[in-house]
Automatic annotation (TrEMBL), chain A:
GO molecular function: 4 iron, 4 sulfur cluster binding; metal ion binding; molybdopterin cofactor binding; oxidoreductase activity
One Pfam family per UniProt: Molybdopterin
Protein name as it appears in the record: Anaerobic selenocysteine-containing dehydrogenase
Biased composition, class Basic and acidic residues, residue ranges: 126-135
Keywords assigned by UniProt, alphabetized: 4Fe-4S, Iron, Iron-sulfur, Metal-binding, Molybdenum, Oxidoreductase, Signal
Region (Disordered): 115-136
From TrEMBL, chain B:
Renumbered residue ranges of the record's region Disordered: 240-271
Name of the protein in question: Molybdopterin-containing oxidoreductase family iron-sulfur binding subunit
Metal-binding is among the record's keywords: yes
GO molecular function: 4 iron, 4 sulfur cluster binding; metal ion binding; oxidoreductase activity
Gene3D superfamilies: 3.30.70.20
4Fe-4S ferredoxin-type domain ranges (all copies): 24-54, 69-100, 101-130
Iron-sulfur among keywords: yes
Keywords, sorted A to Z: 4Fe-4S, Iron, Iron-sulfur, Metal-binding
Organism: Halorubrum alkaliphilum
Pfam families in the record: Fer4_11
């Protein structure tokens, strides 16, 4: 019924009346909000006198952090002073990286906070059967019961002497993560904490690791750059520091040439000077050919790379070079080996055949890039390297920065200056014998086995193989998983070939999950614990990196007027009866475990996490054994953990006397820092790691390596561990490189390998091109109406639709028309989608934005919650393959599919 | 805050909306625009818009054949035309030219006849076929006693049931005699440069929201305004110039700033 029907003569009066209703509304909320529960809203008695005739948006901008993607922008949140309601968000005005600029994803946060499909309180599964088609039949339970159930299960494992069957999985996190992710399993006695990192972009870290010793993401000095060559990176759309790069992009186009290597017309490609629409999987051919051109034409940076002794360029196509004739600079080594083993015959014409990009374009881009050097960026995204043989491509792409001397240099690729945060107190003294025995077990993702080198930081098995944990669980190899706590992730949706996780989760006898929404993962859980929203309802800390700085950004419970007061946070700081995964829940669990006779976790928290300002322990601050007191202590613990983590920043005494202070902004007390919510490092100093400037790279040789010496050591270490040789390792892991085999690429230098087919070309004639939705918020925004309504911000997409983009030439051949319902089938799965004929995709490929295909999560995300998916999930057709050297899951490359009209 | 919006803000403070001869105008620098849609989402939230109704919107075009493809994203909004056919054809003058040259809409006199919708060549007028935000009336939960419902969220957030708006409803929308928080069945509505914000010396939300500083806003009749500076520097364009409506929204440079016209090397607007 409409009270504003225009046929109503009293329209005007009604309207004025309506304003009064608004005021009454605020007062009405008093009654609605009053309750005995700790989480009820503040009584709003003050609402009566606050507003006169009109509502005014006088509110405070309170600091927090957006974790809508790993840009992790410092943020501010406008909180209505009368209702404590969140009105809007923006970038943090004091950030020297992005200022008030945020990206459109942050604006979706408010629709997540106030999402009608949020979980409001703990639930327990009543249907013992588990499966996608099985209704879990959840019933509400209290926090006390829910925590008690988890504690019972953990006690049972420890009593049976099998703590290794406990597992924690994480997805997004804040830097309070060690408490739940590391310390809890450690004290219980399980090695099985499995992060999402290998479905993010570990292969991207492989490139810088095995050239300059940095297992890390880079920041790119776009403000000083003259050439940006982006490889599968879409910096104005997705990850990382989108807010900063978006703002700079218009000026960058004035100052620099931008070239984008990408099989589909990405957002960045739409605005660039050059689009190199590479055939999926062949990026490495382009990188090798560009390096070839740069050396052939003498365009390398002498200061960084070196020079022929007599100044004569001996990089002649097809000819090897005598290393004796070249004098390496003190900054790098191995360029001759790289040329002799890989580059000497990688001419642009060859690459044009491999990669489907014209030779002239390869020449032009390579030349332009090198001539702009050292103010030139070879920008490595996930696309070219989250592929079966992606590690070597990552090295080749990153090594281009070495050739032109842009490593750590003005207008080039930088890292983050050191920050003034402290490690959280660790639990070593609280690990008992039962736990120690459990910790000796192998991890469930099988990292470090012959077939999973996962060479993070040069160490065999140093990194995670996230997606393989599903197989570990299903095969009970190395052991069964009996109890799982998952948090801030949705592995049943976010891993390639996600159907395996559905099976794995159904196998686990007891699974508790901590989430804001009833996700696909929650569908398999025994206990669902509702999580705080990271930007509005909790403590935490993340960091941003850009414009030469790194900032430390706080998450604060913005709806509480005094966030330091646990009571205020519990009463006003949350919309529902929700708790923080990384801190409050482990604390409550510690108390419940102590009730059951295992006191180590609680002793650890009580002893090591006092309030660093007052010195009071948790129990000294909040005594009492009832559950409410425990909830308050859990909140105080959360606050204390953050204070301890950031102590050098706000405690002058600690900073000066107990910490190796790297410089940067200084605060005088906690409240001053907490109210600002952001801290800056000093600015990045160009070239400070160059040996010629007195610095050192973190490789085994201390210099930038074109010859993969550090990789040689890592691979040999892994081979030795398995009593075999490097060739066997590479063979088992599906790589083509070999040691000293003239018919194979060299195992150590950056090089091109042909793509590894994920499907037979005859049966699956198309390459599937996956990329992440610009409004995606790491898979968590599909239930926000704006993400659906405005998803045409992804070039080629249309509002509210999930489209498979096909080149009109292919469509014509197959008789597919715009809007046809089609199925996309791969060797591992099949999804339904709608065809969109679009010239922005390469013939022979099907491009589809990742992010749709939810069958749970909520009523907007799915067609029918628990039943019918909205569109298709790309992960159903992408097989569970790996770039094994980095441990990464594969999303790109030669992912093969067939399409058919339905 | 970015340097651009800071200076635009300062300009706005010296511009009185009621002043004689103030001609408010927006310039959209397409080279700076990244097609991110933040303006549209910000606008939807600012104005409590029903889903599917966008004052700040876009025209998207892909041209050419692989691999020579161009893609253009053109942000759109009501052009606040000097010669506004929407206002001219309105039988009750509900649509009229208001202060600052803004094409205003008076919901109280609107009879929902749709003449303006027919007369606007830009499709910038939207009809409320029903009261907005009906989904926010729902009391249904996906999981009973486990997840929330629209009504429950509104209660919790302190937004009255009678307001046809989401829980993240923006109360600023009614901070003005000229405005109202949400619309209702049977009348039209349109963008008015966020006059409720202008009255409080705040920039239109799409201008403030744009992370790329692609939108420049100010007084066309102030010779020193940034708007005039930018218009003089580049060759401005309007949409459908041949319609003769004299739009107050201008466009400069190209969305494909890379591939079409090489940049001039001059410092960008943000510097
Ligand atoms: S770039 Fe990422 S972190 Fe920054 S505002 Fe956007 S979603 Fe949030
Ligand atoms: S917010 Fe700015 S950059 Fe983004 S689409 Fe709108 S005008 Fe373009
Ligand atoms: S764009 Fe349309 S609605 Fe706006 S003033 Fe012009 S004619 Fe009227």
């Amino acid at each position: 019924m409409s009270q504003h029907d225009t046929t109503d003569d009293d329209d005007t009066d009604l309207w004025i009346g309506r304003r009064d209703v608004m005021k009454a509304g605020a007062v009405g909320a008093v009654a609605a909000g009053l309750g005995s529960s700790l989480t009820s809203l503040t009584p709003l008695a003050q609402a009566e006198d606050g507003r006169t005739d009109l509502v005014e948006h006088t509110g405070d901008w309170r600091p927090s952090t957006c974790a809508g993607c790993t840009s992790w922008c410092a943020a501010q949140v406008l909180v209505d002073d009368e209702t404590d309601r969140v009105l809007r968000t923006r970038g943090h005005e004091d950030s020297r990286i992005h200022g008030t600029n945020d990206c459109p994803r942050q604006d979706l946060g408010i629709q997540q906070l106030y999402d009608p499909d949020r979980i409001t309180q703990p639930m327990r599964r009543t249907n013992p059967e588990k499966g996608r088609d099985v209704d879990p039949e959840f019933e509400p339970i209290s926090w006390e019961e829910a925590i008690g159930e988890i504690a019972d299960r953990i006690m049972e494992l420890r009593e049976n002497g099998e703590p290794e069957t406990f597992m924690v999985t994480r997805g997004r996190y804040t830097y309070l993560r060690p408490i739940l992710y590391s310390y809890l399993p450690q004290i219980i006695g399980s090695p099985n904490n499995i992060s999402h990192s290998a479905i993010c972009a570990e292969a991207e870290k492989f490139g810088p690791m095995y050239t300059e010793g940095e297992w890390s993401y880079r920041q790119y000095d776009v403000q000083q750059s003259r050439y940006v060559l982006a490889w599968g990176a879409d910096p104005i759309s997705a990850n990382r520091q989108v807010s900063h790069y978006s703002n700079e992009f218009g000026d960058l186009l004035d100052r620099a040439t931008v070239a984008v290597v990408e099989p589909r017309l990405s957002s960045t490609a739409t605005k660039s000077d050059e689009w190199l629409p590479v055939e999926p999987g062949h990026d490495g051919a382009l990188a090798s050919a560009m390096a070839h051109v740069i050396l052939r034409d003498g365009l390398w940076n002498r200061e960084f790379v070196g020079e022929f002794e007599d100044g004569e360029n001996r990089f002649v196509p097809g000819e090897r070079v005598d290393p004796e004739t070249f004098e390496e600079s003190e900054n790098s080594r191995g360029v001759i080996e790289w040329w002799n083993e890989e580059l000497y015959d990688k001419e642009p014409e060859w690459a044009a055949d491999e990669a489907g990009v014209p030779a002239e374009q390869i020449e032009r881009v390579a030349t332009g890039f090198a001539e702009a050097g050292p103010n030139a960026i070879s920008w490595l995204g996930g696309g070219p390297c989250m592929q079966v043989r992606g590690s070597y491509t990552a090295m080749a792409i990153h090594a281009l920065n070495g050739l032109v001397g842009s490593v750590g240099n003005r207008g080039g690729t930088l890292y983050a200056p050191s920050t003034g945060v402290e490690d959280l107190p660790a639990p070593d003294e609280y690990v008992d014998e039962v736990a120690e025995a459990g910790l000796d077990h192998e991890k469930i993702d099988q990292r470090g086995r012959l077939e999973f080198p996962a060479l993070k930081d040069g160490e065999s098995g140093g990194g995670v193989v996230t997606n393989n944990a599903a197989d570990g669980i299903l095969d009970e190899d190395p052991n069964e998983i009996e109890v799982l706590i998952s948090y801030w992730n949705n592995f049943a949706f976010s891993n390639p070939e996600s159907q395996r996780w559905e099976e794995a989760l159904a196998e686990i006898p007891f699974h508790a999950t901590i989430e804001t929404h009833a996700s696909e993962t929650a569908w398999f859980a025994d206990v669902v614990l509702p999580a705080t929203h990271h930007q509005f309802e909790r403590w935490g800390q993340l960091r941003s990196t850009g414009a030469g700085y790194r900032t430390i950004n706080l998450h604060t419970p913005v709806m509480a007027d005094d966030p330091d007061d646990p009571e205020d946070v519990l009463e006003n700081g949350r919309l529902w009866d929700v708790k923080t995964d990384e801190t409050e829940i482990p604390y409550l669990l510690a108390e419940a475990l102590a009730d059951r006779g295992f006191e180590n976790l609680l002793a650890f928290f009580e002893t090591e996490y006092p309030d660093p300002e007052s010195g009071r322990s948790l129990r000294e601050e909040i005594p009492g054994d009832d559950f409410e007191s425990r909830e308050l202590r859990a909140q105080a613990f959360s606050r204390n953990a953050l204070k301890l983590r950031t102590r050098p920043i706000w405690d002058p005494d600690y900073r000066e006397n107990e910490f190796d202070w790297p410089g940067g902004e200084e605060f005088d007390d906690w409240v001053e820092f907490r109210e600002r919510g952001i801290w800056h490092t000093d600015e990045w100093e160009y070239r400070h790691r160059w040996p010629s400037e007195g610095g050192e790279f973190d490789t085994d040789t201390g210099v930038f390596e074109f010859d993969g010496e550090t990789l040689r050591n890592a691979l040999e270490g892994h081979a030795e561990r398995h009593d075999t040789d490097v060739d066997t390792v590479l063979d088992v892991c599906n790589y083509q490189g070999r040691v000293d085999d003239p018919d194979a690429p060299d195992a150590f230098v950056p090089h091109y390998e042909e793509p590894y087919d994920m499907g037979d070309e005859d049966d699956y004639p198309f390459n599937f091109v996956d990329y992440k939705d610009r409004l995606n918020r790491e898979g968590r925004s599909a239930n926000t109406p704006w993400a659906q309504e405005f998803n045409d911000v992804n070039p080629g997409d249309e509002p509210g639709k999930d489209l498979a983009k096909i080149n009109p030439r292919d469509a014509d051949r197959l008789g597919i028309e715009d809007g046809d319902e089609i199925s996309i089938r791969s060797p591992v799965g099949e999804i339904e989608s709608t065809a969109k004929l679009w010239e922005g995709v390469r013939p022979g490929t099907v491009a589809k934005t990742w992010g749709q295909g939810h069958w749970a999560y909520g009523r907007v995300a799915s067609d029918e919650f628990g039943d019918e998916a909205r569109g298709g999930s790309n992960n159903v057709v992408i097989g569970a393959e790996y770039d094994r050297l980095s441990g990464s899951s594969v999303f790109y490359g030669d992912v093969r599919v067939d399409i058919e009209t339905r | 805050m970015s340097s651009e919006s800071e200076s635009l803000d300062a300009e706005l403070e010296t511009t009185t909306l009621d002043g004689e001869g103030v001609d408010l105008s927006m310039v959209i620098d397409l080279q700076r625009c990244t097609g991110c849609g933040a303006c549209n989402i910000g606008c939807a939230q600012e104005n409590n818009l029903q889903e599917g109704m966008a004052y700040s919107s876009r025209i998207i075009e892909t041209n050419g054949e692989f691999p020579n493809v161009s893609y253009e994203y053109t942000p759109t909004l009501c052009n606040q035309c000097d010669d506004a056919p929407c206002a001219e054809g309105c039988p009750t003058s509900a649509l009229h030219k208001g202060k600052g040259g803004i094409t205003m809409h008076d919901h109280e006199t609107c009879i929902g006849c749709k003449s303006c919708m027919i007369n606007c060549p830009y499709d910038e007028i939207h009809l409320n076929e029903e009261d907005p935000h009906p989904t926010w009336e729902s009391e249904e939960a996906t999981i009973e006693s486990g997840t929330a419902s629209a009504r429950a969220v509104k209660d919790r957030a302190g937004v009255d049931d009678d307001v046809d708006a989401p829980a993240y409803y923006n109360p600023n929308r009614e901070v003005s005699e000229t405005e109202h928080p949400t619309r209702y069945k049977g009348i039209v509505e349109k963008c008015n440069f966020c006059v409720h914000r202008l009255e409080r010396d705040e920039l239109p939300r799409c201008v403030e929201e744009c992370p790329c500083e692609a939108r420049i806003f100010g007084d066309r009749n102030d010779p020193d305004s940034t708007v005039n500076e930018v218009l003089a520097k580049y060759n401005p364009d309007v949409l459908k110039a041949d319609e003769g409506t004299e739009p107050s929204v201008n466009y400069v440079r190209d969305y494909n700033g890379g591939s079409y016209e090489r940049g001039t090397g001059e410092p960008g607007l943000g510097d």
